[in-house]
Amino acid sequence: MKALYLLCLAVGSSAFAQTITFKGCYNLFDDQVFTFTKTGVDTNGKGIYITTPIDGQPCGGLGTCEFKIQWNNTLTRWEFLADEGNGTFASPNLIYYNSTGNSAFINPPANTIGTWVENTTITAGQCGGSLTSANSTMTGDVHTSTLGTSDVTKTKIQIFPNPVSEIISVSGIEKAESINIYNMAGQLVVSEAFSKKINVSQLTSGVYLLRINTRDSQIHEFKFVKK
Q1: Which of 7, 144, 156, 197 has its CA 20 to 30 A from that of 93?
Q2: pLDDT tens digits for 160-189?
Q3: Rounded Cα–Cα distance for residues 132 and 60 (Å)
Q4: Any idea which UniProt keywords this protein has (predicted)?
Q5: SS3 36
Q6: pLDDT classification of 60: cutoffs 50, 70, 90
Q7: Helical residues (DSSP H) of 52-211, grouped into ranges
Q8: Where along the chain do its domains lie?
Q9: E strand spans, 60-100
């Protein structure tokens, strides 16, 4: 266990407001909450999240833990990584990976989506197996629905027109609560209460992702082009 703690030294930074909170793998990481802050996006538009504070978080007096959640495009999966012990993530240690592709989403899945599989080669099985809602919590900037951009045709939800100049209309959705719009750099540019007519006239031309959040914790995501 001590060896793993020493592997969990890392650096982090804070560039965006989106955060993820994680609590789990109590045998190795103690009964404490880790906060990941979105530090940017990769070349595929996926968010990169690193724990704060920048100098790590104490783990049972055996060292400091700092982690990273990011998309592995080669293996098409989200990964939960620990620093290798040199204050960087140059050669990180894989702690968990999500076995579901989730390629349509710009943020990682919650612990109830797909399966976050424990990498026992690193943990020696001390994390208690795959992440579940019974042995961990993962909240914040995570998606909680398997519905992605590629699944839009399977639903009656529609956004139009697309491309759009001023107003996006939304039809076929119930219990919608709020909307977020992100640019392709992963930055949140609009956040407001849901309306069936969304004014995007203030946005510059380009491609955006519209996220509709519902009262029953579903998330529906659509790409659109602002003319």
Answers
A1: 144
A2: 998 999 999 999 888 889 998 988 777 889
A3: 23
A4: Signal
A5: strand
A6: low
A7: 120-123
A8: 19-140, 158-226
A9: 64-65, 67-72, 77-82, 93-98
The whole-angstrom separation of Cα 107 and Cα 111 is 13
Cα(123)–Cα(191) distance, integer angstroms: 39
Question: What pTM, to 2 d.p., does this model score?
Answer: 0.60
Gap between the Cα atoms of 118 and 125, Å rounded: 8
Question: What are the two backbone dihedrals, phi and then psi, of residue 169, each rounded to the nearest 5 degrees?
Answer: -100, 140
Sign of CA dihedral 186, 188, 145, 19: positive
* Rounded Cα–Cα distance for residues 80 and 116 (Å): 9
pLDDT at 55: 61
* Burial zone of 197 (CB within 10 Å; 0-12 exposed, 13-18 middle, 19+ buried): exposed
The pair of three-digit structure tokens given for residue 122, joined into one six-digit string: 């690193």
